[in-house]
Specification:
mainly alpha, two-stranded antiparallel ribbon, 4% strand, DNA_brk_join_enz, DNA binding, DNA recombination
């Protein structure tokens, strides 16, 4: 009797489960996702966070240059990681795993740019090409993606590396943003770092400042710009997205254009002035 009921139950499950349970559950999940409010970072919050990070960074850098304190070193490491994620809109898990060898092999593309290529850039792009450095790291699905380093971020990282041993970082830890506790082989978590400084900066919506939402912010707000097909392709490649767009053979070298044009766009985002360039192309963005 029990066996027959069990068999009957299994037959009912097999026949009715999809319609009665799976479909209803999927329908509920889809509705919840559809009706969930999607909060993107506010431009005012990004600007406020950037200002907070910059002031904290300058204070810590000055203090460390005078005298080493482990607490200041640890805080500077967190600030620098947050600044790097915020500027590049890079996936947090990718940025936090930048290795020392990656940083030491960084390149300044102005040293390699052919004169003909540099002459084709705007004055703003030429300045960025000379001041920004580019680090290549492993991204999602083993893609090689770039991280751009501003001069002040490079200065911070140089200071972190100088006092790395004094801070107690394990010699086997390969990461730039290494944990300072002895024996740790792991980097800092960018999500924790962003959350910490978002709260400190008294943002209106601190919960919206995550690496994922910062990337969505770029993808959404960039639509107000009149980007060319080439600029969209450069942006997608820089963000580590897959894009099925035909590539012509006559393009500026990828590394040079990535530093110059993405540096210009990302700087406008971080200054909170991206809205001023609605309907314009990257060529029309003037950061002065």
């Amino acid at each position: 009797m029990v066996k027959e009921k069990a068999i009957e139950f299994l037959n009912v499950c097999e026949e009715e489960w999809t319609n009665e349970i799976s479909y209803a559950a999927l329908h509920t999940l889809t509705d919840n996702k559809r009706n969930k409010q999607k909060m993107l970072p506010l431009s005012e919050d990004i600007s406020k966070l950037q200002t907070h990070l910059q002031k904290t960074s300058e204070s810590l850098t000055e203090a460390l240059q005078e005298r080493f304190f482990k607490h200041n070193w640890e805080l500077l490491s967190k600030v620098t990681l947050a600044k790097l994620v915020l500027f590049n809109r890079r996936r947090g898990g990718e940025t936090e795993r930048i290795e020392v060898v990656h940083y030491e092999n960084r390149k300044n593309k102005s040293e390699q740019a052919p004169k003909e290529v540099e002459d084709s850039l705007s004055e703003t792009e030429k300045v960025l090409l000379r001041t920004l450095s580019r680090v290549e790291i492993r991204g999602k699905r083993d893609r090689t993606v770039a991280v751009l380093l501003t001069p002040d971020i490079q200065k911070n990282i140089d200071l972190l590396l100088r006092y790395r041993a004094d801070a107690g970082v394990d010699k086997e830890n390969a990461y730039v943003f290494a944990r300072s506790n002895s024996g740790s082989q792991f980097p800092l978590r960018s999500a924790d770092v962003l959350r910490k400084f978002a709260k400190e900066a008294s943002l209106e919506c601190p919960e919206s400042v995550t690496s994922t939402k910062l990337r969505k912010h770029v993808a959404t707000v960039v639509q107000i710009l009149n980007l060319s097909k080439n600029d969209l392709e450069v942006l997608a490649r820089f963000m580590g997205h897959d894009i099925n767009i035909h590539r012509s053979f006559y393009r500026l070298p990828q590394e040079i254009i990535e530093v110059a044009r993405m540096g210009c766009l990302l700087t406008a985002f971080n200054k909170g002035t991206i809205g001023h360039f609605s309907g314009k192309s990257i060529d029309d963005i003037d950061l002065e």
